[in-house]
Structures are given as structure tokens and as C-alpha cells.
User: Fold this.
Amino acid sequence: FALYPKVPLITEEGKRVKRIHQIQDKGQTLEKAMRDSEVAVSIRGIEIG
Assistant:
């Protein structure tokens, strides 16, 4: 499995909520993140922290 930018996030019920804006690893923008990798993900409209 992989995670890609611009892919919509969905709830368990299948409702679309937001889209992944960007994926980064150590400050470098990634085209995709593979399963079990630890990356930073930005999602517009959501603040955490």
C-alpha cells in the first residue's frame, strides 16, 4: 500500500472529509509514502498541536 498527495481521506462510513496536501520525509517532499514509513503529512483546514 502507498499514500499519495491529493488523495481524499475518508471516514469508516466512506464519507470524504479532507485531502492530503503534501507528504514529507526529513524536509523532502515525497511523491508517495509506502506502508509502515514514518512521514509528515499536511492536510489543509486541520490544525493539530
Observations:
- Strands lie at 2-3, 8-10, 16-19, 22-25, 28-30, 33-34, 40-42.
- Residues 2-42 form one domain.
